[in-house]
Amino acid sequence: MLGVKFKRQQPLGFYIADFVALERKLIVEVDGSQHAGSNYDTVRDAELTARGFRILRFWNNEVTDNLEGVLERIAGALR
């Protein structure tokens, strides 16, 4: 996307990012309902943000029902 390389299931310390563009420090997470209100995700996001990463989270149904919108948000974050 926009010439940026994403890696899938990339380890980042104790965590694994669904997708990450390392050179842009952008993480994209695709979550199911088990992540709703997750304290683990809150702590994880705080630690990764402190390391300079930006995190975009999408629900599974957003990806399946509105892929174009999801891709546009990712592209916007890369610009």
Task: Walk me through the structure.
The chain is built from three helices and four strands. It starts with 6 loop residues before the first strand and ends with a helix. The longest helix has 12 residues, at 39-50. The model has no long low-confidence stretch (mean pLDDT 92). With 79 residues, it is α+β, with helices and mostly antiparallel strands. The protein has one domain (7-78): Endonuclease, Chain A. It has helices spanning 39-50, 60-65, 67-78; strands at residues 7-12, 15-21, 26-31, 54-59. It has a four-stranded mixed β-sheet with strand order 1-2-3-4, sandwiched between helices.
Keywords:
79 residues, Endonuclease, Chain A, four-stranded mixed beta sheet, single chain, alpha+beta, 32% strand
- Mind telling me which CATH architecture this is? 3-Layer(aba) Sandwich
- Beta-strand fraction estimate: 25-35%
Poorly predicted sequence stretches spanning 5 or more consecutive residues: none
In the sheet with the most strands, the strands line up as 1-2-3-4
Number of domains: 1
Q: Write down the overall mean pLDDT.
A: 92
Instruction: Indicate the overall shape.
Output: globular
Helix content bin? 25-40%
For the termini, the CA-CA separation is: 11 Å
Please report the first level of CATH classification, the CATH class.
Alpha Beta
What's the β-strand tally? 4
Given helix and strand content, the structural type is alpha+beta
CATH fourth-tier homologous superfamily = VSR Endonuclease
Q: The biggest beta sheet, please?
A: 4 strands, mixed
